[in-house]
Amino acid sequence: MKGLQVSLLGLVCAALLVSTTAIADTTFKYDEPAPGNMRFAWIHGSISAKANTDVRVQVHRYNEHTYILRQNPAIHWEAPFMYLLFGTDTAILLDTGATAEPEYFPIFEKVKRVIGRWESANKTKLAKLVVLPLGDDESQLGGLSQFKDPSNLAGMEVVLESPTAIVSGAVTEASIDLGDRSLAVIATPGLSAAAVSIYDPWSDILFTGNTFYPGRLVIRDFAAYKASLQRLVAFADKQNVEWIAGGRIEMQATPGMDYRLRANYRPHERPLQMSVSTLTQALQIVALINGREMIEVAADFIVMNGVGRGARAYGWPVYTPGPLQKPNVR
After folding, report:
1. Which residue segment(s) compose the domain that 212 sits in?
2. CATH number of domain containing 222
3. pLDDT at residue 170 in the model
4. Which helix (H) or strand (E) element contains residue 302?
């Protein structure tokens, strides 16, 4: 009986040892993309933003080390997406949302809770959180101030990283190490002067922020944006990109139809994920525009050059594919 007790004690100790080192055994390497789940629906705001009762920050666990967060459209009409990725010793938050006030948009508290749950599940403590906006748009920088007090994450270093500190000038590619999970950083200015995109070779997701997403792509620097798309297409040709994750959704499920600016209610949005073929299509459209003042409508996005973000395609000399031609139903 005594021997049995010793054996049981040994088994318990062995189990505890395995559980406390579980994350250390994660290699973040797959022959195929790390599996993830996108079978769910995003909250879509409400006609009366004031009466909305949904969560302020929606959190979706794509897989055990990759989380997608979205700001409630009723809190801010751009409803930006943020991405929280975990490595063995470092986590990174891509973009911080559009609202600074934690009482309306508690992005810091939500990220803190997700980190706590992740650490508990993996029996480990992270050393560092990197906060990296993928551009300089307000929808990416709004919540940044909530991360500026390092004492809020006890025992964890918080690094507020700038895209231009990683890639700038002639340096168009770099990397960030999360501990066994290394991310590629690609300079992608054009819509935003300080924009970068991130590629995660573990999940094979390309995070493009506001550089490329299902919405209105308003070009600010044509030459820079064309070069950025060329860089992304060439990069995607060399990598196994499973899908592209942008910074927001502005397109409806109906091909070629977008939501108006400041729309807090979006019940029939197009899915977030985009394919590499849509990126190639965007480059072809930009080449077709060739620097002219123009709006080109595609099924999954709208390219706008030399016009304001609120401009409409109607009345412009644009090429609209046949399947997308329809009367104005707005």
Report:
1. 32-324
2. 3.60.15.10
3. 82
4. strand 302-305
